[in-house]
Amino acid sequence: MIRPALLALPLLLSGCATMSPRVAGKGSCSADELADYAGRPATAKLGEEMMQASGSKVLQWIQPGQMVTMDFRSDRLRVKLGPDNKVASVSCG
To answer: Mean pLDDT by 10-residue block, N- to C-terminus, for the chain (93 residues)?
Structure first.
């Protein structure tokens, strides 16, 4: 009886993941040109545009209150979202 429940656990937990990091781009991230993205709704297309504009390889969406690691990655673009699921701020690292 316990085994079927354990097998279903990964499926149930996968529903908890909201937006995981995406990988693409050239390399080193630069958020200098991304101020105009603030206030726009978070979509996959917007993420692709921001990665292209920043030159980042990795995109990380950060929900309000979400815990993130403190490690620095020069190729990562971090997009903090507001409670309305719109871009609040953008940074590299």
So the answer is: 49 41 65 92 96 95 95 95 96 93
User: What was the pLDDT predicted at 11?
Assistant: 42
Residue pair 88/82 in contact by the 8 Å Cβ criterion: yes
Q: Which residues contact 79 (CB under 8 A, 6 or more apart)?
A: 37, 42, 47, 50, 59, 60, 61, 62, 87, 89, 90
What is the identity of the amino acid at 29? C
Mind listing the domains of the chain with CATH numbers? 19-92 (3.30.10.10)
Instruction: Give the position of tokens 């190729």.
Output: 75
